[in-house]
Every structure is written in structure tokens, then in C-alpha cells.
Amino acid sequence: MRLHRLGITAFGPFGATEEIDFDALSAAGIFLLHGPTGAGKTSVLDAVCYGLYGAVPGARQSPGTSLRSDHAPADLLTEIRLELTVGGRRLEITRSPSQTRPKKKGDGYTTEKAQSRLREYVPDEGWRALSRSNQEIGEEITQLIGMSRDQFCQVVLLPQGDFARFLRADAEARGKLLGRLFDTRRFAAVEEYLAELRRAAGTQVRAGDERILAVAQRIAQAAGPAATECPLPGIQPGEPGLADAVLEWAATARSSARERLDIAASVLSAAESRQTAARLALDTARELAGLQQRYEETRRRATAVEAGRAEHDQAQERLKRARKADLVAPALELREEAGRAHRRADAARDRSRAGLPGDLADAGAEQLTALERRLREELGGLDAARRAERRGAEIDSERTALERQARADDELIRDADSWLAGWETTRNGLHTRIEAAQEAATRAELLAGRLDPARRRLDAARRRDALAAQVSDAEERLGTARERALATGEAWLGLRERRLRDIAAELARELADGEACAVCGSPDHPRPARAGDGHVDQATEDAAEAAHRRAEQARTEAEHALAAVRERHAAARAEAAEAGDGQAADAPGERDRAAEPTVAALTDLVDTLTREHTEAYRTATGTHAAREALAAAEREQEQRAGARQQAERRAAARTSRREGLDAEQAALEEVLAQARGTAGSVTEHAALLQHRVALLVEAAATLREEESAAARLKEADDRLADAAFRAGFDTPQDAAGTVLPDSRQRELQHRIDTWQAEAAAVADRLAETDARAAAGLPPAAPDAAQPVFDTAERLLRDAAGTHAAARERCTELGRLSRHAADEVRGLGPVREEYERIARLAGLTAGTSADNERKMRLESYVLAARLEQVAAAATARLRRMSSGRYTLVHSDARTGGRRAGLGLHVIDAWTGRERDTATLSGGETFFASLALALGLADVVTDEAGGVRLDTLFIDEGFGSLDDQTLDEVLDVLDSLRERDRSVGIVSHVADLRRRIPAQLEVVKERHGSAVRHRAADGVSG
Questions:
Q1: Contact predicate 49/954, CB 8 Å
Q2: d(C-alpha 203, C-alpha 207), whole Å
Q3: Residue 482 and residue 477: Cα distance in Å, rounded?
Q4: What percentage of the chain has pLDDT greater than the value 90?
Q5: Are strands 1009-1014 and 998-1002 parallel, antiparallel or unpaired?
Q6: What distance in Å separates the CA atoms of residue 825 and residue 831, rounded to the nearest whole number?
Q7: Which of 205, 397, 831, 1009 would suit a FRET pair with 642, their CA atoms being 20 to 30 Å apart?
Q8: β-pairing, 885-890 with 902-907?
Q9: Which of 775, 812, 859, 730 is closest to 174 using CA atoms?
């Protein structure tokens, strides 16, 4: 990578645009970058870093810091343009940070986003644009250079102070720096990955051990008393030997359980023998007692059978006579039914004759029937008269309806005549109302078009007056802020000038005996400078600068605030001064007031327009109602005129209808006079005839029913007498007294059957020989045998329960033991994997016994890199020290710390190896310089062999004597052999005489500037 040109605009201390030609500076191989403190030497290096990576090194990129120069004018944007060659490609990178700039239109400021541009020079085409994306450009540059920003700042911008500390640092500090440069995070990730695998595998092993212990706990519960003889092993999960101990303990528990099962089986067999003998004795005693009790019961039942024999014989005789009487029962029932029917018919005949006239009380059925036929014939002749009577009633109803219709039509005609008389007046009034509403709608639209602009002008006038006060306040604040910014700036510059005059005294305070001076490099300090009266230290200057920056920030904010308020005030004035269409005709002089109208005038105008618009709108809203009223009135006029014509036609029809009804009514009256007779009406005469016919019909029917019932009664008496004689009874009354109901007969038969069955059963039981023999023996005693049997039964149950529990315990122990064995077998591969991973993790973490030097994997890789760096640095260190010093890597352990990142120097004059912390100030400088150059070579190779043709070395040359300085410069000059150029950043005055190519940074009141100095002159 070679730098060609660098353009710096409004960046850091540079208030204008500065161009740096690295090609001219690099022609001599070595060039010097110098200038007073605070001029901006480091800002040049920051600009290079920002151009490549879009960020500056270290803490200078912290949040809240700005890259923009405070000396730059507001319209000059901050920009870095870097032209370089990398990877055989000539590129131009242009970057601008996020910054504020004045608006192109109007007052105020706007924020400009960060921008990046990348171009490539093609010989045949010239500059060709590649990308404008920050992310794409960053990825492209990082890939071409092969280094991150931190690596670039450490390798290309060599900070000597950092490498001096690196020489004196411990292994941990060296590890952090080397880790950033060589990016060994992947090896640390391997360590963490193996540690995580070990933790995960350990968790699985502990989980498996916990499962095995859980099974062991269940085995202990299942073993019962056997578990107390051999307690569970006290090994914790994760400890070795747990699985074997649990399996051995489970085998012991199973053996003890099997012994207890054999003992329980012997006890059960003895209990079964005792229980069998006791049951046999109890069954024998119970059987003898049952036979003796049966015989006594049979004797009692035989005595009871003999006592009921007489009652049994009487029941048999009575049942026999009742069954003979059952043969006469149908004739008896028929006689009773015929008697009841005859009595009902006789009562009905008497009731029907009571309603007949006296001359028909003894009439027969034929006479009554003949009289009924005659009355029916007379009733049939009245049907026509009844129809005529109904038609007369209908004619009366129709006449009443005609009169009601006539009165309604007369009322309708009078009402229609009254309404139609005022129709023309009503129609004209509605037309006038519609025209007035239409005119009001037109005026409302015109007023609405003027009202909205008037309201906007009123709101703008109110904002204008309020913003005028805010403009005055903002102007006062801006004046105050400007005065304060000017005062704080003058105070800060005054303090800075005073501090620079006494800077030697300030540097002298940091001197210590035996330590090299940061300016001249001498360890002797014979006459250190003294501070004069009124000396200003750096803290006071920093406080003054911070106060000035805060005042400048306040001034900028006040300017922005004033511009914003002025912009809003101008917009409000312009809006308030606008005049709407037609507004000049409203009042005289309004055109003059339109330029700057008052709030009161605009308020009056808005109120007047609002009132007029409201009235016009209220009138206009009646347009639809007026049209609807006119349409409804026209419909009503048509309806009333039509109704009047229909009423006149109905009146003519009613007159002809009345005449027809009168003629029909006269004809009907003649027919009805003949049919009514002496009755009030035809219907009344017909009802009387129907009543007489019904009485005659009922009387004839009841007379015939009574005669039929008498005949059936005589026939039933004859059948009953014949049936009683055939059944063996003297009279029907004797047969009737012997009849029993079915329920009574069934009861007698049940008593007879029960006695006979009991007698047969007693005879059978008296014939039993075993019961008779048992009765001759002594009384049995089953109560004495029962307690013996209960005791034997209880002992058997206890023995059986004990045996079943022992058998179940053995079964469960066998199942759980197999489960434990399965868990142990399943955990075996997991435990082996854990042991393998644990060995690897311990080896990479430096905690394993196999790792003799206790070096972590990342430290081991860094130690190899450090060994390469020491070898590369030694080649230059030997030249700088005239062959005296050699840098070597040491992996020896110091104290209890881990080994791997030690760095020693071998002194050829003494032949001894010692720590780099024992080098003097000058020796430390050229040793750290050699280390930095060697590190640059190794990192370059690590990054893919990208050439670093431009390097910068920052400070430290003041600690060298003349001879050593010559040797160091010779080494740096030798870098040209590899086509490299080296830029030295230093205050040492002797270097200005030794190095002709120089880039001077000049500090001025309005911003810093750069000057190129070559061997042939100076250029700005």
C-alpha cells in the first residue's frame, strides 16, 4: 500500500483545504512531519485513517466528539480525499462525516448525512466511479489492505510509546496487544467451545448419575428392612465409581430379599396345615348341630299338621258346593241385568209422557207416530217464509248503510269545496318560498368562499404578533451569546499564549532523576526551567477551552433559533397580508389595511362574514322543505278534486238503489203476514212446531223400549229356574246363596294345597334316618370350634401377606436392578465422551497435567507469533545497537503465572540474557522501534502479503545520542531497499537538519496549514 495524495478540508485544526503530496515526500525515502504542539500533526495521521476506514484511531472517535474544524466557515463542508495504490489498483477515497450546513433556501441549518465515494483510475478511461455506499467501500478497502483499523493504526502508524510499554509489560498485557493485531479470537473461541462442551458433557454425566441415584433410592424403598442392613453408598453425582457401587449395593439387597422370601414360604406352609385341620373340625360340629336341629323342627311341624286337619276338610266341602253353584251363575247374572233394564225403561216412559198434553197420556206408540208426521209436514211449509223474513232484515241493514254513506259523502264534498277555494293562494306562497331559499343558497356559497381566507388571515395575524415578541427575545439571546463567545474565546487564547510561554516549566515538572527527558532524551537535568508569575497550567487552559466551546455552541444554537423564529414570523406576516377575492369591495380603505391588518380588524371581518353566512345558510336549508311542501299540496289538490267527483257519482247510484229496495220490501210483507199466524214471527212459529215434534218422538221411543224390556225379563226368569234345577238346587235362591267369588275360591284352594304340601313334606322328613340317628347323639358344640378356626385363619392371612410382600419385593428389586444396569450402560458412552472432552479442554485451557507450561491455546499461538516478531525485530535491532542486542522469546514461567509470552534481550557484551525492562531510555526506544518494524513485517505477511510502502513513526527520537540516531536513521533508510517510505513524527530539532524532506504543520489563529519542504526549497 502506497499513499499518493491527501486532501484535508475543514478537518480538525485545519480550517481550509490543505493538500499533502506523499509522492514528493516519499521520493527521499524518509520524510519528517513536525510542527508545534497542537498544530495538527496527529490530525494528519487521523485524516489518513479516516479516509481509509471512516473513523479515527482510539479515543478520538469517542461519542460526542466532532471531526469538523471550529475554524472553518459555515458553508465549507468537512471532507477527506485520499489517493493511494493498494493491491495493484490506484484508488481515490472521498469521505465526509455527518455535519450541519446552512439551508440552500431560506434561513436556518440542515444536517448533511455522512457520505463516501470510491473511484478507481483506469489508464485508458481515467477515473471510474465504483461505489457510494459506506458499507461496500469499507468492506472493499479492508479486503484490499487485509487489516482492520486497529491493526492498521498499530502497524502503519507506529506509536512508539505503545511499543515501549509493550517491552516492559507483563504477559497478560502483551497478550491483549498481540491478540488485537493477529486476531486470535478463533483460538480463544476454540478454548471456550471446548470448555462449553465440557460443561455440557459434565451436566449430562451428572444428570445420568442423578438418574442412577434416583433408581437406587427406589431400590432402597422397595428393599424395605433389607436396606437397613446395607445402607446406600454415599457417593455424589459426577464422582467416579458411583455406577459400580450402586450395582454392587443392588445385588446385595436382592440377595437379602431372596433369603427373606424363603423364610416367608416356610411359615406360610405351616399356617396352611393348621388352618385345614381347624376348618375340618368346625365343619363336622356344624353338620351335627344342623341334623339335630332339623329333627326337632320336623317334630314341631308334624304336630301342627294334625291340628289343622279338621279345618282342611271343611274347606274342601265348601269349595265343592261353590263350584256347583258356578253352573247357575250365568243365568243369575242374565236375570239381574234384565231386571235393571226393565226398571230403566219404565222410568224413561214416565218422564216422556209428563210433557205431553192430557189427551195424549194413554195414547199408544202408533197414535203418537201419526201425530208426529203431521206436524213435520206443517214445519216443512215454513222454509220459504223464513227465507223471506231473513231477506227483510238484510234490506233494513242495507238501507242503514246507504244513509251512512250519504252523510259521509256530503261531509267530504263540503270539505273539498272549502279547501279548493284557497288553492291558488297556497301555491303562489310556496313558489315564493322556494325562490327565496335558492337566492339564500347562492349567497351562502359566496360568503363561505370569503370566510375561510378571512379566518386563515386572522390566525396568521395572531401568530405574527406572538412571533414578533419571540423574535425580539431571540435577538437579545443571540447578542448575549455572541458577547459571551467572544469573551470566552479571547480569555482562552490569552491563557493559551501564557501557557505556551511557560511550557518549558511545565515539562520540567515531569522530570525525574535518572529518567530520560521527553524532549532531549538526556537522563541528567542540571537546570530545569521554573514557572514565572501567573503561570497557567493545562487544566486551566482546558477549562477555558471547554467554556469557549460551550459558548460557541450556545451562540450557534441561538443563531439557529433566531433564524427559525424569523422564518415563521415572515411566513405569518405574508399570510396575514394576503387579500381574498372580492374582499376590497366590503369596506372603504380595506386595500390600505391589507398590507399590515390588525387582529381587531380581522376579527370584526370574520364575525360579520360568519353572521351573514349563518343567516343565509339557515334560509337556504329550507329549499328542500319548500319543494316538498309544494309537491305535497299539489298531490292533495288532485286527491280532493277526484274524491269530490267520486262522491257525486255515488249519490246518484244510491237514489236508484233505494227505489229497488222499497219495491222488494212490499212484496215480502204479504208473504210473511200469512206465515206468522198468531206468533210474533215465522221463526217463533217454527220453533214451537219443532218442540212438539221432539216430545212426540221421545214418548213413542220410550214406550217401545219399556215393552221390549218386560219381554226380556220374563225370558230370564224362565232360564234361571231351569239352570238351578239341573245343578241340584231346590230353588234359584238356594243356588244364589251358595255362589262364592273367584278370589274366595282361590283362597280356599290355596289353604287346601298348603296343608297337603306341608303334610307330605313332614312325612318325607320323618322318614330320614341320618337325622333320627343324630338326634340320639349328645348335643353338638360349634361355638367352641369357631375361635380355634378364626385364629388359624388369621395366622394364615398374615403368613400369606408376608410371603406376597416378599415375593413382590424380590420382583420389584429385580426390575429396578435391570433398570439401574440399563442406566449404567446408557451412561457409559456419555462418560467416556466427557472424559475425552475434559482432557482436551484442560489441555487448551492450560490446567491439565499434560500441559507442562500451563499455556492456553491462544497464548501458545501468540507465543509463536511473538517468536516470529522477535526474530524479525532482531535483524534491525542488531544494526541499531551495533550488534550488541538480540531480542528473544521466552516461554519460561515467572512465579505462579503461566508461561508463553516472555520477551528478553541478550547482551552480547556480557553474554547474559535479561528482561527488556532493564534497557535504558534510548535503548528502549530503538528496541521498541525494531520491534514495531518487525511486527509490521509479520502482520503484513499474516494479512496476505500486502506491501506496506508507507509507514509513520511517532516520537521517541529525542532519547537517542548522535551515533545511535545515525544508526537508527540508517536502518530506516534501508527500508527504501524494499521500496518503502517512512514518515517520522518528532519535535527533535536535529532531525530537521538530518532529514531534508519535511512536512511542516503551522499553527495559526484561523486554523492550521501545511508546508512541504524538500531538498530544493519550501512549498505551501
A1: no
A2: 6
A3: 9
A4: 4
A5: antiparallel
A6: 10
A7: 397
A8: antiparallel
A9: 859
Residue the block writes with cell 322543505: 625
> Vertex 243, ends 239 and 244: CA angle to 5°?
110
Is residue 508's pLDDT more than 80? no
- Residue 264 CA, chain-centre distance (Å), reads 63
User: Which of 156, 181, 155, 188 minimizes the C-alpha distance to 865?
Assistant: 181
What's the first-to-final CA gap in the chain, in angstroms? Answer: 26
pLDDT tens readout for residues 27-38: 877 888 888 888
CB 858 within 8 Å of CB 184: yes
Query: pLDDT (tens digit, 9 = 90+) per residue, 758-804?
Result: 888 878 877 777 777 777 777 777 777 788 888 888 888 888 888 88
Q: Whose CA is closest to 1020, among 997, 1002, 994? A: 1002
List of residues 6+ apart from 872 with CB closer than 8 A:
933, 934, 935, 937, 938
List, for residues 694-743, the tens digit of each pLDDT value. Answer: 777 777 777 777 778 888 878 877 777 777 777 777 777 777 777 777 78
Alpha helices in 855-917 (DSSP H): 857-880
Q: What whole-number distance in Å separates Cα of residue 929 and Cα of residue 161? A: 10
- The residues facing 126 across adjacent strands are 122
342-356 confidence digits (pLDDT tens)? 888 788 777 777 777
CA dihedral 702, 704, 706, 710 (to 10 degrees): -170
DSSP string for 39-72: SSHHHHHHHHHHHHHSS-SGGGG-TT---B-TTS
Alpha helix (H) ranges present in 160-184?
A: 160-168, 171-182
Nearest to 48 by CA among 112, 90, 2, 99: 2
pTM higher than 0.85: no
Using CA atoms in the order 889, 894, 898, 899, what is the torsion angle rounded to 10 degrees?
20
How far apart CA 574 and CA 566 sit, in angstroms, is 12
Q: What angle separates helix 242-307 from helix 185-223, to the nearest 10 degrees? A: 30
Distance, CA of 407 to CA of 220 (rounded, Å): 117
Which helix H or strand E contains 635, and what residues bound it? helix 623-676
Rg (Cα) of the chain, in Å, rounded? 69
Place of cell 538530518: 994
Task: Compute the distance between CA of residue 917 and CA of residue 903 in angstroms, rounded to an integer.
Answer: 9
d(CA 290, CA 283) in angstroms, rounded, equals 11
Report which secondary-structure segment, H or E, holds 1009: strand 1009-1014
Question: Residue 195: how many CA atoms within 13 Å on its side-chain side?
Answer: 13
Cell of 281: 373340625
* Burial group, residue 518, by CB count within 10 angstroms (0-12, 13-18, 19+): middle
- Judged on CB neighbours under 10 Å (0-12, 13-18, 19+), 565 is buried
| Chain segment 650-679, per-residue pLDDT in tens | 778 878 877 777 777 777 776 666 666 666
Closest CA to 95 of 37, 138, 51: 51
* Pairing of β 912-915 and β 902-907: antiparallel
The residues that bridge with 129 in the sheet, in sequence order, are 119
Q: What gap in Å lies between CA 287 and CA 264, rounded to an integer?
A: 35
* Spatial distance between the Cα atoms of 943 and 151, rounded to a whole number of angstroms: 10
